[in-house]
């Protein structure tokens, strides 16, 4: 025998209309009541008739997750995006929403995919998982007033866009401070992306920490061409760097292999700190000291803010900051204990 709305209402001690409003996440129902009714729905195994509800409301009951152009091995293998999809999917299920993914290897194709998903009403809104200064997708979403949440910081229209992010400038500063406090004075910032906003913010934080400590700041070491991997050894020698701040854990693994190929040991010769605290930070020894950006919370908060837009509970731009945490491991040598 199939479970009905009446069965849920009876067990939850509410009216059938209340159950219907909970299913539609109506703002008139309190969060306490929503939690109670959803718990009963789970206990009884009740599944709403999404198709019928969608026809009546002209909605898709789906969220679109937009990944950046997957144009490199680093991006294809970056666990940040998989962890984000998992977090969004988990949070979306609470609202009885499914998840669709838009991906491509270039911006032009990605934009066409997003347009098609929107015009064919496959999704009710989007979560953008990156912030790129040459991105046509965010302009399309904003210009057409399509509900979307950005994970990251926008390059423009910050007061109009709803975005969820870490304080990346503070992340960069705290990573660098951690090295400075352990006696490092010649510190480089290393990156394989210069288009995403998190690069600028983390690099600004690196510069800020060194300037406050009256230490020399260096131009970011950018890996954008094959020869950059060859020139890096010369850069290390010229700067006499003892420590590196690397843009993320996945690229940090590549840098560790490169440094070891030069005959240097980590952390004995070169210390290293990175960001994200992904699975890569503990895949090889030494384990990477990293700042955890709480990807799960980023994804869940982005989903919540998108649902508020879809349900017309939120229209103005808003910034949500997710806290981070330093995870101390094995890639930073404390020079103050050697003297």
TrEMBL record:
Residues of the HTH cro/C1-type domain: 3-47
A GO molecular-function descriptor: DNA-binding transcription factor activity
InterPro entries: Cro/C1-type_HTH, HTH_LacI, LacI/GalR-like_sensor, Lambda_DNA-bd_dom_sf, Peripla_BP_I
CDD domains: HTH_LacI
Leader peptide range in chain numbering: none
Record keywords: DNA-binding, Transcription, Transcription regulation
Residue ranges of every copy of the HTH lacI-type domain listed in the record: 3-57
Entries under PANTHER family matching the protein: HTH-TYPE TRANSCRIPTIONAL REGULATOR GALS, LACI-RELATED TRANSCRIPTIONAL REPRESSOR
Entry protein name: LacI family transcriptional regulator
Organism for this UniProt entry: Enterococcus dispar ATCC 51266
């Amino acid at each position: 025998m199939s479970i009905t709305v009446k069965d849920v209402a009876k067990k939850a001690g509410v009216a059938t209309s209340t159950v219907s409003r909970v299913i539609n996440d109506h703002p008139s129902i309190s969060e306490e009541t929503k939690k109670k009714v959803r718990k009963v729905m789970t206990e009884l195994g009740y599944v709403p008739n999404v198709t019928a509800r969608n026809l009546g409301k002209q909605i898709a009951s789906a969220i679109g997750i937009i990944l950046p152009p997957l144009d490199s091995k680093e991006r294809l293998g970056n666990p940040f995006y998989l962890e984000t999809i998992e977090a969004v999917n988990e949070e979306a299920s609470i609202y009885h929403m499914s998840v669709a993914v838009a991906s491509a290897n270039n911006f032009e194709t990605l934009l066409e995919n997003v347009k098609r998903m929107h015009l064919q009403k496959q999704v009710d809104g989007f979560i953008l998982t990156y912030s790129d200064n040459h991105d046509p997708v965010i302009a399309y979403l904003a210009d057409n007033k399509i509900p979307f949440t950005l994970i990251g910081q926008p390059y423009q229209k910050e007061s109009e866009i709803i975005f969820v992010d870490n304080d990346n400038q503070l992340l960069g500063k705290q990573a660098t401070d951690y090295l400075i406090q352990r006696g490092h004075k010649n510190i480089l910032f290393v990156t394989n992306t210069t288009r995403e906003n998190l690069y600028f913010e983390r690099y600004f934080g690196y510069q800020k920490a060194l300037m406050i400590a009256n230490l020399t700041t260096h131009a970011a070491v950018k890996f954008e061409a094959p020869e950059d991997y060859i020139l890096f050894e010369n850069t290390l020698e010229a700067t006499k760097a003892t420590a590196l701040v690397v843009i993320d854990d996945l690229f940090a693994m590549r840098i560790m292999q490169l440094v070891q190929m030069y005959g240097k040991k980590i952390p004995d010769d070169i210390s290293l700190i990175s960001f994200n605290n992904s699975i890569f930070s503990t895949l090889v020894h030494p384990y990477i000291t990293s700042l955890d950006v709480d990807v799960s919370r980023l994804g869940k908060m982005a989903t919540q803010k998108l649902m508020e837009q879809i349900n017309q509970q939120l229209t103005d731009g808003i910034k949500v900051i997710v806290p981070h945490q330093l995870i101390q491991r094995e890639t930073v040598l404390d020079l103050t204990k050697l003297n």
